[in-house]
Automatic annotation (TrEMBL):
Lineage of the organism: Eukaryota, Metazoa, Chordata, Craniata, Vertebrata
Organism: Falco tinnunculus (Common kestrel)
Main location: nucleus
Subcellular localization(s) per the UniProt record: Nucleus
CDD domains according to UniProt: FANCD2
Disordered: annotated span: 694-733, 1192-1256
Extent of Low complexity compositional bias: 1231-1243
Residue stretches of biased makeup (Gly residues): 1217-1230
Descriptive protein name: FA complementation group D2
Family affiliation: Belongs to the Fanconi anemia protein FANCD2 family.
């Protein structure tokens, strides 16, 4: 700097300066090397410091010369002279004409090559003066829109300029417009500029625009074409493509690094990005970018993790984040997503705990994609997490984790084989149901026999565990061992050969069946033997029959009690149904589904005893009763397995026999119900009778093949007491409805019966069937019509509802420290199907179900019409109850299907459409194929709404309402809401009477009433008006009714149901009040002033003309208003004491309004010639509690003494002036006008009291 100063002084003192200096410099720099040296930094010889001098910095007069030389010397001799020249401008102390310099620089940008443009633009922030930054920023913004080659230097320059908010928004918008078309390598710079300059006020809007413009699909294009290029191109070309892919992945990684920095260090960016994703409603608006950013935020910001999880769950449930989107993210951007692996693992674990199936499926898909896309460490963590879920003890987690492992072992066997050591830990889990055992050992057996060395270790462990479980005395463990051994046989043989069944080892099955079908020996038993339920007309000597009573006798009572010869091998009746199932499966497999080889078993009789037990039970001993119950259980299980076997046979004769067997089942259930009803005291309260209890676990095994943990009847009956489990209350409702009937006692014994397969319900398709009766010469002798009666329909629908309740109703995912026994008892075959498969089966049954429900509708409409015309004796109460129960089960079936939350998943949309199409087809035949989903929902809603006039009971009305809500919620439209409110009110205003004439009541009625009343109030347009109507109309009618009466408007409101109405109305009233937003303290002052102003403007003119005729009313009105104005005056004092700025801001206007009120009252009195009744008093300053403000008390008294000196002047002082407030009073001038406050004396004059009656 000293050298520069000395040189400048010397040049200025020289007489020929500047002409000689410039000419000498021009001649000096004609030499390229000398010119280059002038542009380069120079270091002094002395090493006193690191000073550097630039020759061109000596004078600003060199500007024109440098520009001229720059234009002619671009790229000369390999030296970038323009760059060196432009760099000199950064170090100039001053510019003679900065405007001209900037203008020339901008001109050079338009004509220079790209490298020089780059240098000029990046140097502009150091060259410009502060006043020029806005102008240059606009020029650069325009230049940014024109071309894409200078994107990076322009944004770099703009980021270093100090711009105002308006210009910054304009420049940012220019950058936003080039996002869709910018080069991939420039994209991180553009996004960084946008996010770095975003403000909190417009962050959501900016990020929303960025989401729309930022598309990652262009980033993965090289990945998609690489596979085809490898086959067609040479190795060099393939290598070039791979390099392109690597560059693309690196650019995407840089992009998310930029976003990650913004999210970490800019709080507004993180919250605004979440908000922008949350505000997107359309499914098409959501991209892979959204999912990756949510994972990024979850991984980076701990404070936003809960919010991120909430948004992600919500989007998954709405179908905005399908699994395909996640698969694209993992497949195309695994390098980026791998950094968020801890968050992926945490989110997957959280999603598996969700009750929503879409969220659970998304979490399981995250596990599978992470295993397939990441390295070995991540794969090991995924397997460890899945094994942890399996061992957690939670049924839902266990099932889902086994499903994920099953998919992994099918798709990535070799990869999963590395971690087989972790998976084989699951072998030692003991509490698994059969379905879980099958999944687990499919996984283990696949790994064990995968032709790798590691598999031999798993084989050894499996053999050890199987030996242990087969030798166990616990039935559940023995069953597990059998299943596992079968999987090992299948893997060792490739496929299990069914011909093994005819080997000597399997001859026991057919031998057992032949013994069971032998003719009954002539021996004495506990009951006389009788052949029953024979469907075949041929009763010759060679006919077969099921020797059930002898088998039960030798099994239950032992061989020594009776004198009859026994076969060499004792056969247990417990094995009859399971062995028959195995035999028919084998036969069907060998004969392509045909069972003609064993069709004699469908119609053969059973050797039982006389089942006319009514009136005979009291004479039977305990042993005889127990024996009879066991015999009936075995007979029912045999018939149920027979129906399972032959239900899908297409032969008309077989179909007729299957329907007959269903009738036999209902008849046997009636008999068994009577027997259990006679034994209920010892059976229900003390547990099952010895014979049944001893066979309890075995019968349970017989009925479910699972042999899971014990489940007592008390456990089953207790499930119906859960208030929130609406579907589980079905059994309790049926028991109450059928009170005193035999079927009531069978509800707790469902798990003891053989499970009906889903294929059995295809019987619902059957209409009228003709069964041919043949004579001895096989000619048709007669025709008999067989049809599905109400009892058989009731039986099938009851079992179907029970199944749907188990598989389609989501269970609790809460982790239980000490879980109870498995709830899959009785559903072992059903649990092998997924909920979607079950839903598909039910959708196929919708047509016959609609037919049956329409039949029920017609039946009850006819009953109603007969009742209206007085044909009461024609009603069969028992038939009415049976048909009502069928109607109820039909509605429950529809509700279970359409309330299934699996329909919310995107992949089940077609299934939902198919189901709705069946319902809509009933209204518009042949017109539903091309209808939109919303139109199908509307038509289905109206179809089901037609059944409102025929529902026979309040519980059916309750189920119909819930069914309509389940359909209307897809989505809930305004007109549907009105329909739901109207329907619920109609049911509440309807009198519900049983066929016997009694009004419906009971706990189930109250529970349904509680829910239906909530539905009505929640869907009403004005909930407060609805509550007011019930309170003002229904309750007075109830009070004035008889003791056992009810409200005439609301017949469901009686003295027994009043507590239900009261609880619901109070709860809804409370929630409505809570939904009203809380007001601010300043609202009272603001709205109080507005009220006073409105009163002065609208009410006072009326009072002017009403005062003479209605003096007392006007006086009372003004007296009440005085109290309010006094409270407003206290509020002004409160704001002053507490220095509440929000309240203080309203005080001046409020004081003004109160002052106007004083004068307006005086004007009214003057208009009516009563001005002598007006007086003004001193009002003390008080707080909201009415306590006097002591700091102003003496001042108030002093003001009062001054007012007493001159009454005339005081009467004219307006309220609100001075330290104390003043207000009008009336009462001394006229007998009709009294003081507004009894504590204040009447009279005229000011200062007559400390407080007046109209204190503002």
């Amino acid at each position: 700097m000293a050298f520069q100063k000395k040189l400048c002084l010397a040049l200025e003192k020289h007489p020929t300066y500047p002409g000689q200096f410039i000419s000498g410099l021009e001649s000096h720099i004609k030499d390229r090397n000398q010119f280059k040296n002038c542009l380069l930094p120079c270091t002094p010889v002395r090493t006193e410091g690191s000073r550097s001098a630039k020759l061109l910095s000596l004078s600003v007069c060199l500007t024109d010369l440098c520009f001229a030389f720059c234009c002619f010397s671009v790229g000369t001799f390999g030296t970038n002279f323009p760059r060196l020249i432009v760099n000199q401008f950064k170090w100039l102390d001053g510019l003679l004409d900065s405007q001209d310099l900037v203008k020339k620089l901008i001109q050079m940008v338009s004509v220079s090559p790209v490298p020089i443009q780059h240098d000029i633009i990046t140097s502009l922030p150091e060259i410009l003066e502060d006043s020029q930054q806005s102008e240059v920023a606009r020029e650069l913004s325009c230049l940014l829109k024109q071309g894409r080659r200078l994107t990076v230097p322009i944004l770099d320059a703009l980021s270093r300029l100090d711009l105002d908010a308006g210009l910054l928004a304009e420049v940012r918008q220019s950058a936003m417009t080039i996002v869709p078309s910018v080069k991939l390598e420039d994209l991180p710079v553009v996004v960084k500029f946008i996010l770095h300059n975003v403000k909190a006020a417009d962050a959501v809007e900016v990020i929303s625009d960025l989401r729309k413009n930022l598309d990652l699909s262009s980033c993965v294009l090289p990945l998609q074409i690489l596979g085809s290029q490898k086959k067609l191109k040479s190795q060099v070309q393939a290598s070039s493509s791979m390099s392109q892919v690597t560059t693309s992945q690196n650019c995407v990684k840089l992009l998310f690094d930029v976003i990650k920095l913004a999210v970490r260090f800019q709080k507004d960016v993180s919250e605004s990005w979440i908000k922008a994703i949350e505000n997107s409603t359309s499914v098409s608006d959501h991209k892979v970018l959204d999912l990756i950013v949510l994972l990024l935020i979850h991984s980076t910001n701990t404070k936003n993790r809960k919010q991120t999880e909430k948004v992600l769950k919500s989007k998954i449930q709405l179908g905005c984040m399908p699994e395909q989107l996640m698969q694209n993210a993992f497949q195309n951007h695994s390098v980026v997503i791998k950094e968020f692996f801890p968050s992926i693992l945490a989110l997957a674990q959280t999603f598996l705990h969700s009750a929503h199936p879409a969220v659970v499926s998304f979490g399981s898909c995250m596990y599978k994609q992470a295993f397939a896309a990441f390295d070995s460490y991540c794969q090991q963590e995924v397997v460890t997490a899945l094994v942890t879920h399996v061992c957690s003890g939670n049924e839902t987690e266990l099932d889902i984790s086994l499903d994920v492992l099953t998919d992994l072992v099918m798709l990535h066997t070799s990869l999963l084989m590395r971690y087989a050591t972790f998976v084989k830990v699951c072998i030692f889990l003991g509490k698994l149901n059969p379905c879980q055992i099958r999944k687990l050992f499919y996984i283990l057996s696949t790994l064990a026999f995968s032709q790798r060395q590691e598999g031999s270790y798993i084989q050894d462990d499996m053999h050890m565990v199987i030996r242990k479980w087969l030798s166990s005395t616990v039935p559940n463990h023995k069953q597990m061992g059998v299943i596992e051994k079968m999987y090992l046989i299948e893997k060792q043989k490739g496929n299990l050969d069914l011909k093994l069944l005819v080997s000597p080892r399997w001859m026991g099955i057919t031998e057992f069946v032949s013994k069971s079908l032998s003719v009954c020996p002539c021996s004495s038993f506990l009951f006389p033997v009788k052949s029953l339920y024979n469907l075949d007309e041929d009763e010759s000597q060679g006919a077969i029959a099921i020797n059930l009573l002898p088998l039960v006798s030798q099994s239950e009572l032992g061989p020594t009690q009776f004198n009859f010869s026994l076969p060499s091998r004792v056969v247990s009746p417990m094995c009859l149904s399971p062995c028959f199932r195995l035999l028919r499966l084998y036969t069907g497999e060998q004969n392509s589904g045909s069972l003609e080889e064993i069709d004699a078993l469908l119609g053969c009789p059973l050797y039982l005893t006389d089942l006319e037990v009514e009136g005979k039970l009291d004479s039977l001993s305990t042993q005889e009763r127990e024996f009879l119950c066991s015999l009936l259980f075995y007979a029912l299980n045999w018939f149920r397995e027979v129906v399972n076997a032959f239900c899908q046979q297409q032969d008309a004769e077989m179909k007729g026999k299957v329907l007959t067997r269903l009738q036999n089942i209902t008849e046997l259930q009636n008999v068994l119900g009577k027997c259990l009803a006679g034994e209920h005291e010892s059976f229900v309260h003390s547990g099952p009778v010895p014979a049944v209890k001893r066979k309890g676990l075995k019968k349970k095994t017989d009925g479910s093949k699972a042999g899971s943990a014990d489940r007592s009847p008390a456990d089953d009956s207790s499930e119906g007491n859960q208030p929130d489990a609406e579907l589980s209350e079905l059994e309790k409702t049926a028991a109450e409805r059928e009170a005193g009937t035999p079927l009531a006692w069978l509800q707790s014994y469902r798990p003891y019966f053989r499970e009906l397969d889903l294929e059995v319900f295809t019987v619902l398709h059957c209409g009228l069937l003709t069964k041919s009766v043949l004579d001895a010469e096989m000619h048709t002798e007669a025709c008999e019509v067989v049809q599905l009666g109400p009892a058989e329909l009731c039986f099938l629908l009851d079992d179907l509802c029970w199944k749907l309740e188990h598989v389609l109703t989501p269970g609790s995912t809460r982790r239980v420290p000490f879980p109870k026994a498995s709830t899959d008892i009785g559903f072992s075959h059903l649990c092998q199907r997924s909920p979607k498969e079950v839903a598909m089966c039910v959708v196929k049954l919708l047509k016959p179900l609609c037919n049956h429900m329409e039949n029920m509708h017609n039946y009850f409409q006819a009953v109603t019409q007969n009742r209206d015309v007085g044909d009461e004796p024609g009603v069969n109460i028992q038939e009415h109850q049976l048909m009502s129960f069928c109607y109820q089960q039909l509605l429950l079936t529809f509700r279970s299907l359409f309330a299934w939350n699996g329909f919310s998943r995107q992949e089940n949309t077609d299934l939902l459409r198919s189901a709705l199409q069946v319902l809509a087809e009933r209204l518009k035949p042949g017109e539903t194929e091309f209808l939109l989903l919303e139109e199908l929902i509307s038509d289905s809603f109206h179809y089901l709404l037609n059944f409102q006039q025929s529902v026979p009971s309040f519980y059916c009305a309750f189920i119909l309402t819930q069914l309509l809500i389940a359909i209307a919620e897809k989505p809930m439209a305004g007109w549907k809401k009105e329909k739901m409110a109207s329907l619920a009110k109609q049911f509440l205003c309807q009198s519900w009477v049983k066929p016997s004439g009694d009004r419906e009541k009971g706990s189930q009625f109250n529970s349904a009433l509680h829910t239906l009343l909530c539905v009505y109030l929640e869907h009403a347009d004005n909930i407060l008006k609805a509550i007011e109507e019930i309170s003002s109309v229904g309750v007075p009618e109830l009070i004035n009714s008889a003791k056992d009466g009810c409200s005439s408007t609301y017949p469901t409101l009686s003295r027994q149901t009043f507590p239900v109405f009261f609880r619901v109305m109070m709860a809804q009233l409370e929630s409505s009040v809570k939904s009203i937003p809380a007001g601010k303290p300043s609202d009272s002052s603001e709205y109080g002033r507005l009220f006073v102003e409105a009163f002065l403007k609208l009410a006072m003119p009326l009072l002017d003309y009403s005062f003479k005729k209605h003096r007392d009313d006007v006086q009372s009105l003004l007296k009440n208003l005085q109290l309010s104005t006094r409270q407003l005056h206290h509020m002004c004092g409160h704001s002053k004491i507490h220095q509440d700025i929000g309240l203080t801001n309203h005080v001046p206007l409020l004081k003004k309004s109160l002052e106007q009120f004083v004068y307006r009252v005086k004007a009214m009195l003057a208009f009516n010639h009563c001005q002598e009744a007006f007086w003004v008093g001193i009002l003390k300053n008080r707080d909201l509690q009415g306590e006097e403000i002591l700091s102003q008390a003496s001042e108030g008294r002093h003001s009062g003494e001054e007012e007493e000196d001159s009454a005339d002047s005081a009467a004219e002082v307006p309220a609100g002036r001075g330290r104390g407030g003043r207000s009008p009073g009336w009462g001394g001038g006229s007998p009709a006008l009294t003081a507004a406050s009894p504590q204040e004396p009447s009279g005229s004059g000011a200062g007559s009291s400390e407080e007046d009656a109209a204190a503002p």
